[in-house]
Write a structure and sequence with these properties.
The protein has 19 helices and 34 strands. With 766 residues, it is α+β, with helices and mostly antiparallel strands. Strands 12-13-10-20-17-18-19 form a 7-stranded mixed beta sheet, sandwiched between helices. It has a 6-stranded mixed beta sheet with strand order 15-25-22-21-16-34, sandwiched between helices. A 4-stranded mixed beta sheet has the order 2-3-4-5. Strand 2 and strand 3 form a beta hairpin. Helix 14 packs parallel to helix 18.
Length: 766
């Protein structure tokens, strides 16, 4: 059985250096020796100094004298093979030998810039940086290789880790050993470098092995939950009845003292307000901490959120929508929507809702923290180090430079680990005890503490003229806002001066031409007080697109038009929907293209058996600024006696621009598709007494293998800028299924998840 790597406290702490590992195996995430435990893909002798010079023209990669290319990855690896995808970008421009590429996971040194892995932004945001870095390396190696070969640079080409001049060549390692590689590139130098045209690519878009799979499949990979240090204690929290409004009055650990290994219970004093009312139960072993926590008795003083229910949250949201002055108004191209509706000859209106959704990642959240020489070091899996470091600074009363976070492989993130709140109690406990403390939440603890996707309520209206052409559209969406909870500086100002969370309304700012449009983003302040709203795979488009694409379908049927033709007629590509370079070239026409493609492949309009239907939906997730165009066709069969919806087949068409890693892209799309299916028919939790009702897999039931339908995923061949793929396909599944149910039965379902009871209830009221 593979043992976790251990970190000796004797090792000195350092933020600013990291070792470029040189080994024969395929991949290594390396740090300087102080962070030996954070070498999350342990391989033979990962800290052997290669000796000799290193070629490092930018901070993003280096080449040693053996020709080993170490690429620094500042993104979190959580199963999406992001290191492989990003390394391919740089290796492509460098003309590297892929077998010589290694991955290096960096710590939280400020030089790496913002460290955030979410929103499907990693490839999109890193592509220009890594392309330029690779091009800089290639240019320098060709220049120095030419000198060593005694020819001019114009007579040389770089290929597979070598510089070639006719029948003569020299390897990158030898150039590093013998050449003068002192040249460095400024940011302006990098921006002016020319990168390859698509026809010259040899790695991007080609089948290539992922660098991190072998250690994972062999059980060698180290996740946050595996991290250990000598002399550490274990902790499990005794969670209060409310997320924010509880204060500890007394602690009775009499019964817990009978547990062998139990040490003490600590009431946390958290100046950051992240974990108010928490009691940390400390023990010598994790099993002892688990047992003792169940026995510790705590008396709390609670606020009114201890009684909040799902019904309260929904009712409050409905009241907010009814207030015409509530919320922030997005810029959707101008126009007086009230006047436009007053001129409309007919209108259609509907309200859509979604339940709260848990992340339920395989690895429960955890963190190991210890302090030495005035520096607090935290070892954990995290998606957004840049978000949590300022919070830790406030909680610990330490300047940011006295805190370092070592990132590990993540056993499932899906947005949960964008909120690093779980690192705060571990660090506070370590500070209080002056001992290393490792906190691990149980599955139930993790569910209660989860930064859930907020329950939502949305009301939409469309106004038609006498020719049944849309002339006005209004969309109001109410939710708890994760950005407000965790990064309030990320709120933006609407046209009415009010602030809003862009991650809680994206998707409502669609590419359809619906005449004069208005979108209102409204914060559910009761939800904001009752729990910590979080980002969850696809974030807002996961609910805004459910309402939008279902309602577009409703509107088409209302005026007796084919849903496909109605949509295509609205993708005019005019005005703000025209698209722009570099990310949204083609605009609405690209969304129309994937919709046409998927409809054709699904045989739109064909005859189907009774109680069977096909529904369509399309999207541009994640954001208008970085659109990945997606379309889905879903074929479903509905059992009218039981209300059970069986998804028979899903078709997906995706235009994500240039595909960097074909295998990774397909895996991302498949995972997103299944997540969308799960949230459409299976996943969802209610609130009761201030907490989520479901805390384990006996009642919270994600999609099972037996529920997975046949599916067919296709990608548009493109040379446009690469976009993200981790989340966009999620957003089109639920509305396509909802629209298919309507096509099969005439029943319009307006709440997620869609349950058999919802189907039967809708049938009873039809």
């Amino acid at each position: 059985m593979n043992r976790p790597l251990r970190l000796s406290p004797e090792l000195a702490l350092s933020r600013r250096s990291f070792l470029i590992a040189s080994i024969a195996a395929s991949a290594v995430f390396g740090f300087a020796p102080p962070a030996r435990a954070a070498n999350v893909l342990p391989l033979p002798d990962p800290f052997k100094d290669p000796g000799g010079p290193l070629f490092q023209p930018t901070i993003w990669f280096s080449i040693d004298t053996n020709g080993v290319i170490s690429i620094n990855i500042a993104k979190a690896e959580m199963g999406q093979h992001i290191g492989t995808a990003l390394a391919r970008i740089l290796a492509e421009e460098l003309d590297a030998d892929w077998s010589q590429v290694r991955l290096v996971s960096v710590d939280t040194d400020p030089k790496w810039g913002p460290m955030i892995t979410g929103g499907s932004t990693s490839v999109w945001s890193t592509y220009p940086i890594f392309s330029q870095a690779g091009a800089a390396g290639r240019m320098t190696l060709i220049e120095e290789g030419a000198k060593l070969l005694g020819v001019g640079p114009q007579d040389c080409v770089a290929r597979q880790g070598r510089v070639e001049a006719g029948d003569r060549s020299i390897g990158y390692g030898e150039i590093v050993r013998r050449g003068d590689l002192s040249r460095r590139f400024s940011a302006d130098d990098l921006k002016n470098l020319k990168i390859k045209t698509p026809d010259k690519r040899t790695l991007i878009g080609k089948p290539t092995r992922a660098l991190d799979i072998p250690p994972k499949t062999k059980g060698q990979a180290v996740y946050g939950i595996d991290a250990e240090v000598d002399g550490m204690l274990y902790a499990r929290p005794k969670l209060p009845p409310t997320r924010y409004g509880s204060k500890v009055l007394s602690v009775d650990d009499t019964a817990a003292r009978k547990v062998k290994g139990y040490l003490r219970s600590i009431v946390l004093d958290d100046p950051s307000g992240t974990v108010p009312g928490w009691v940390m139960v400390i023990a010598e072993t994790y099993p002892a901490a688990v047992r003792a926590t169940d026995l510790v008795q705590v008396s709390w003083q609670n606020d009114e959120t201890a009684h909040v229910s799902d019904k309260d949250l929904q009712a409050h949201a409905a009241a907010l929508i009814a207030d015409p002055g509530a919320g922030a108004v997005l810029d959707t191209g101008g126009g007086d929507v009230v006047a436009a509706f007053s001129q409309a000859k007919s209108t259609i209106e509907a309200t859509y809702t979604t339940a709260g959704v848990l992340h339920f990642q395989l690895e429960p959240v955890n963190a190991l923290a210890f302090e030495r020489d005035g520096v607090m070091e935290i070892h954990t899996g995290n998606q957004a180090q840049s978000f949590i470091l300022p919070v830790l600074s406030k909680a610990l009363a330490l300047p940011p430079e006295k805190i370092v976070m070592r990132s590990y492989l993540i056993g499932g993130g899906f947005g949960r680990r964008l909120n690093g709140d779980y690192s705060v109690p571990a660090a506070l406990a370590a500070k209080a005890l002056s001992r290393p403390v490792k906190m691990i939440l149980t599955r139930a603890d993790d569910s209660v503490l989860d930064s859930i996707r907020s329950p939502t309520v949305q009301t939409l209206r469309i106004g038609f003229d006498a020719d049944q052409k849309p002339v006005a559209m209004d969309h109001a969406a109410v939710a708890g806002w994760p950005t407000k909870a965790m990064v309030p500086v990320g709120l933006v100002k609407g046209t009415n001066g009010a602030l809003y969370d862009p991650f809680s309304i994206a998707g409502a700012d669609h590419w359809y031409d619906m005449g004069v449009s208005r979108v209102r983003a409204i914060n559910n302040d009761l939800a904001q007080k009752s729990f910590r709203p979080g980002w969850l795979r696809a974030v807002a488009p996961g609910w805004t697109n459910w309402a939008l694409e279902s309602f577009i379908d409703e509107a088409a049927h209302e005026i007796g038009q084919d849903p496909l033709e109605f949509r295509l007629g609205r993708f005019t590509g005019r005005g703000i929907n025209a698209g722009s370079a570099p990310n949204a070239v083609g605009g609405a026409h690209r969304q129309a293209n994937v919709l046409r493609r998927v409809a054709q492949r699904a045989g739109w309009g064909r005859q189907l058996p009774a109680n069977t239907g096909v529904g369509l939906a399309s999207s541009f997730g994640q954001e208008r600024e970085m659109p990945t165009w997606c379309a889905c066709a879903a074929e479903v069969e509905v059992d009218r006696k039981t209300g059970v919806v069986s998804v028979r087949k899903l078709w997906l068409d995706i235009d994500a621009g240039s595909i960097i890693d074909p295998d990774g892209a397909r895996a991302q799309a498949e995972g997103a598709m299944l997540w969308g299916l799960s949230m459409a028919l299976h996943e969802g939790t209610d609130f009761a007494n201030g907490k989520v009702r479901d805390t384990n897999l006996d009642t919270y039931t994600p999609v099972r293998i037996s529920d997975v339908p046949e599916f067919d995923i296709a990608f548009v061949e493109s040379t446009e800028a690469p976009m993200g793929l981790g989340e966009p396909p999620t957003t089109v599944i639920a509305p396509a299924i909802g629209n298919a149910i309507f096509a099969a039965t005439g029943l319009r379902l307006r709440r997620l998840p869609i349950t058999p009871g919802d189907v039967l209830n809708a049938a009873a009221h039809t």
